[in-house]
Amino acid sequence: MTDNDDFTTIINRYFQNDYRERGKIKWNGYFLSDHTSSLTKEGIQRNAITKKLPAISLNDAQDILRHASANYHAVTVQQNIKDNEGNLIPNVTGLINGFSELGVYIDHQFIAFEDIRTVVRKKESN
Questions:
Q1: Please, which contacts does 47-53 make with residues 24 or more away whose CB atoms are closer than 8 Å?
Q2: Are the C-beta atoms of residues 64 and 76 closer than 8 Å to each other?
């Protein structure tokens, strides 16, 4: 056996028996701080529980939506839809893009009138 064969045997034995892969730990240094902070923020949003707001009638909700649309005000809409754990889904906040016979579009997201629990006009900041 030559020195080269001994070295190959030692290396093979090392990787078969002794080497421990560090897995994800070795890649943590490649994550940028903004990526890490966005993952943290996303986790917080995903785990946040939506606080129930007082329910209003559909006519009142539609009046608020029409007024906000005409005056370019942002609104927050809470829907009567629950997730798998029984919590309300997150509120939708934004400007009204338009209406249809069945609902309203807020920031290009459709919300059916029958699902609306409440509508709150966002206060303008000066």
A1: 48/90, 49/87, 50/78, 50/87, 50/88, 50/89, 50/90, 50/91, 52/78, 52/88, 52/117, 53/78, 53/117, 53/118, 53/120
A2: no
Region of 2 (left: φ > 0; alpha: ψ -120 to 50; beta: rest) is: beta
Indicate the SS3 state at residue 120.
strand
pTM of the model: 0.61
DSSP 115: G
Q: How far, in Å, CA of 39 to CA of 33, rounded?
A: 10
User: Tokens at residue 38, please?
Assistant: 């966005």
pLDDT per residue as tens digits for the range 30-72: 666 777 778 778 777 677 788 899 999 999 999 999 999 999 9
What are residue 84's phi and psi, to 5 degrees?
-65, -25
DSSP for residue 82: B
